[in-house]
């Protein structure tokens, strides 16, 4: 028995950054109307290129998308999510800004959120467990 083609799609690896400010706020970015998952909020990041490590991807993507340099503090559990037309594995890193001021190149907005407001946004579905994992680290 063969699976329908729609079930055989590959899982796209994506790195994302939970960027935390000195006063413990978390950066969320809003996808623009030109992007897929239009107007959803996400942790900035992007697809891992072939032969690139997830860590290298996140530093590169954040430089491209936000014009800032970050450093990585730790990694959270990866989340696999199946959207209707594609599947991703989201690999989250907790990060902080080392240099620069945010200048958006692709997203349409950004917000710094207090942890108690984190779950209020209209997140891309894959990001909800990521946000929950982050909040769990604060309660430990
Ligand atoms: N960067 C990022 N992407 C996410 C998150 N959550 C989530 O479902 N995604 C999805 C959106 C995209 O389909 C894919 C990441 O690809 P990308 O950031 O390179 O997005 P893109 O718009 O350039 O790519 P595309 O989907 O239009 O081909 O993963 C997240 O928190 N961060």
Automatic annotation (TrEMBL):
The lineage of its organism: Bacteria, Pseudomonadati, Bacteroidota, Sphingobacteriia, Sphingobacteriales. The keyword Isomerase does not apply. This is 8-oxo-dGTP diphosphatase. Its cofactor is Mg(2+). GO terms for molecular function: hydrolase activity. Residues 9-136 form the Nudix hydrolase domain. PANTHER family: 8-OXO-DGTP DIPHOSPHATASE, NUDIX HYDROLASE FAMILY PROTEIN. Keywords: DNA damage, DNA repair, DNA replication, Hydrolase, Magnesium, Metal-binding, Mutator protein. Its EC number is 3.6.1.55. It catalyses: 8-oxo-dGTP + H2O = 8-oxo-dGMP + diphosphate + H(+); 8-oxo-GTP + H2O = 8-oxo-GMP + diphosphate + H(+). It comes from Pedobacter jamesrossensis. It is an enzyme of class 3 (hydrolase). Belongs to the Nudix hydrolase family. The keyword Acetylation does not apply.
